[in-house]
TrEMBL record:
UniProt signal peptide: 1-24
NCBIfam families for the chain: DESULF_POR1 (NF033939)
Name of the molecule in the record: Porin
Keywords annotated in UniProt: Signal
Source species of the chain: Bilophila wadsworthia (strain 3_1_6)
Top-level lineage group: Bacteria
Keyword Signal: yes
Xref: InterPro entries: Porin_put (IPR059232)
C-alpha cells in the first residue's frame, strides 16, 4: 500500500503543478484494472519452474493535463504485474506493493502557425502494421525515450518521423565509447476510398557496447538483433557504431466491404561485425504476412498466412532471419503474442521470423448480446536449416523463443470468449493448446527433458475507466 500511496501522491503533485502553472488546464484520468487467474503449462520443459495455477493483477493509470488542443502532457503509471502471494511484488499477506513504474511521460504540442505535431519524452513506439501486430517493434515493452513528428499534408497523405534512444550509458565496459543505440524511423501513410498504404523505413546506429548490461528489454534486443546463441558480450564490432536498417510496406483493402484484405512486408539488416570466434554476426532477412477476412452478421471467418526467411546451412555466416527489436506479433493467443490483458501467451515466440504458417479462425462469433467467441486453428513450420541444430548453436527448446527447422512443425487450437458485463467491465476466457512436432533425427538427445505440449485455461476481468 505504501507504493500505491506514493503513486497517488505523485498524481496529486502532477495535478497541483498543473493547477498552479495553468489554471485553465483540464485533467483527464483514464486507465484499467486487469485481474487474471490461470491454469497453464507454458514451458516446454518436463521439470516445471513455475506453478500450474496463478493469480495476478495490474493497474494502469494515464493522466492527461490538457492546456489546449495544441498542448497537453501525459504521464502513464503502471502498478504490477502483481502475482498474488508474491512478497517481492507486494502480493503476499500485508501487501505493500513495490512494483510501480512510469511507462510514459511526454508532452504533445503543435508548432505555432503550422499543423506539425510534436511528441517529446517517454512514449510508445511501433512500426506500421495491418495483419497481426508489429513483428519488429510493437510489443507492450516497446516504450522508449525520443521525439516523434507528425504532419498531415492532406486527406490522402501524411508523415510520421521519430527518433528513439533505445540504449545509452548502460555498460561499465569502455564507458562513453560506442554504448548508445539509436533509431530513426519514417512512415508515409497514404489513404484513399477503401484502401490504405503505408511505406516506411528505419535506420539504427548500434554502438559496439550497447548490448552489454542492457536494461529491462535487453533480452529482446539480444535475441532479435544477433544470430541465435550470441549473448551480446562477445561482439567484436567493425566500428564503434554499426548500421542497421529496415524497409517495409503494409496496406489494407476494404473496397469490397465486408471483405477485408491486408498485408505487411519487411526486410532488414543489422551488421555487428564478428564474434570472438570469427563468426559473422550480420543478421538480415525478410517477412511477408497477409490476412483475408469476411464479416458476416454472426461471425467473421478469416485466414492469416506468412513466410519468413530462415537461417541457412552455414552456421558461421550470420543469420538470415529478419532482425527485430521488441516484437509484438499476435496471430493467436497462446502460441503468439495475442493474449488478452495480462494473460500468458507467446509460448512459441512474439515474432514469426524463421517460420511459415497458416491460422484459420472464426472471430466475433455472437449469438447472444454482449457475448463473443473466437475459434482459431494454426499450423506452423520452420524455415531454418537443420544444421543449425545438428551442428550449430541451437542447444535445446526454449519457451518463448522456440527454434523450428524445415523438418519441425507445431500446431495450435484456441477458443476464446469475451462477455461485456457492463459497458466498462469485460470478462474474458481463454483456452489454448500448442503441440510441438520436432524431428527426432535432427534434435536427438536435445529432446531429453522436453515437454512438447503447452496449454492454458484462464479468466481475465478488465475494468476500463
Amino acid at each position: 500500500m505504501k507504493k500505491v500511496a506514493v503513486l497517488l501522491l505523485a498524481a496529486g503533485l502532477v495535478f497541483g503543478a498543473a493547477h498552479k502553472g495553468a489554471q485553465a488546464a483540464d485533467i483527464k484520468v483514464s486507465g484499467e484494472w486487469d485481474f487474471n487467474t490461470e491454469w497453464n503449462n507454458i514451458g516446454f520443459a518436463k521439470e516445471k519452474a513455475d506453478d500450474l495455477f496463478h493469480a495476478r493483477q495490474r493497474l494502469r493509470t494515464q493522466v492527461d493535463i490538457i492546456a489546449s488542443e495544441s498542448l497537453k502532457g501525459t504521464v502513464f503509471f503502471e502498478v504490477g504485474d502483481t502475482n498474488w502471494g508474491n512478497s517481492s511484488e507486494g502480493g503476499a499477506l500485508g501487501t505493500d506493493g513495490k512494483v510501480v513504474e512510469v511507462r510514459y511521460s511526454y508532452v504533445d504540442w503543435v508548432v505555432p502557425q503550422t499543423d506539425l505535431r510534436v511528441r517529446m519524452g517517454l512514449q510508445p513506439f511501433s512500426l506500421p502494421n495491418f495483419v497481426a501486430g508489429d513483428p519488429i517493434m510493437g510489443s507492450d515493452d516497446s516504450d522508449g525515450a525520443g521525439i516523434t513528428l507528425s504532419y498531415q499534408f492532406n486527406d490522402m497523405a501524411g508523415m510520421s518521423l521519430f527518433w528513439m534512444r533505445a540504449e545509452n550509458d548502460n555498460t561499465t565496459i569502455d564507458r562513453g565509447v560506442g554504448n548508445a543505440m539509436d533509431f530513426v524511423g519514417l512512415s508515409v501513410p497514404l489513404t484513399g476510398e477503401g484502401w490504405q498504404l503505408n511505406p516506411w523505413g528505419m535506420y539504427g546506429n548500434l554502438g559496439k557496447n550497447s548490448l552489454n548490461e542492457v536494461g529491462e528489454n535487453g533480452e529482446f534486443l539480444i535475441a532479435g538483433l544477433l544470430p541465435y546463441g550470441q549473448d551480446g558480450v562477445s561482439v567484436v564490432a567493425k566500428d564503434s557504431n554499426n548500421p542497421a536498417w529496415w524497409l517495409g510496406i503494409g496496406g489494407e483493402l476494404t473496397t469490397f466491404d465486408p471483405l477485408r484484405l491486408a498485408f505487411d512486408f519487411a526486410y532488414g539488416k543489422a551488421d555487428w561485425g564478428k564474434a570472438a570466434n570469427g563468426q559473422d554476426l550480420t543478421r538480415q532477412g525478410w517477412l511477408l504476412s497477409g490476412i483475408a477476412e469476411y464479416k458476416l452478421d454472426y461471425v467473421t471467418p478469416g485466414l492469416i498466412a506468412w513466410y519468413g526467411s530462415g537461417d541457412n546451412s552455414d552456421t558461421m555466416d550470420g543469420s538470415e532471419r529478419l532482425p527485430t527489436l521488441s516484437p509484438g506479433w499476435g496471430a493467436t493467443t497462446l502460441g503468439w503474442d495475442g493474449a488478452y490483458g495480462i494473460s500468458d501467451g507467446a509460448v512459441l515466440s512474439n515474432t514469426p521470423t524463421g517460420t511459415w504458417g497458416v491460422v484459420a479462425r472464426l472471430a466475433d462469433i455472437s449469438f447472444f448480446e454482449n457475448l463473443t467467441h473466437t475459434l482459431a486453428v494454426g499450423f506452423y513450420t520452420g524455415t531454418n536449416n537443420t544444421r543449425m541444430v545438428t551442428s550449430g548453436p541451437v542447444g535445446g527448446v526454449e519457451s518463448g523463443n522456440v527454434y523450428l527447422t524445415t523438418k519441425d512443425h507445431a500446431w495450435e487450437v484456441n477458443f476464446d470468449s469475451q462477455y461485456k458485463i457492463y459497458e466498462n467491465l469485460t470478462l474474458a476466457a481463454e483456452m489454448g493448446f500448442v503441440r510441438l512436432d520436432l524431428d527426432k533425427d535432427v534434435w536427438g538427445s536435445k529432446l531429453s527433458g522436453v515437454d512438447k505440449t503447452a496449454y492454458k485455461v484462464g479468466l481475465n476481468l478488465n475494468y476500463a475507466f
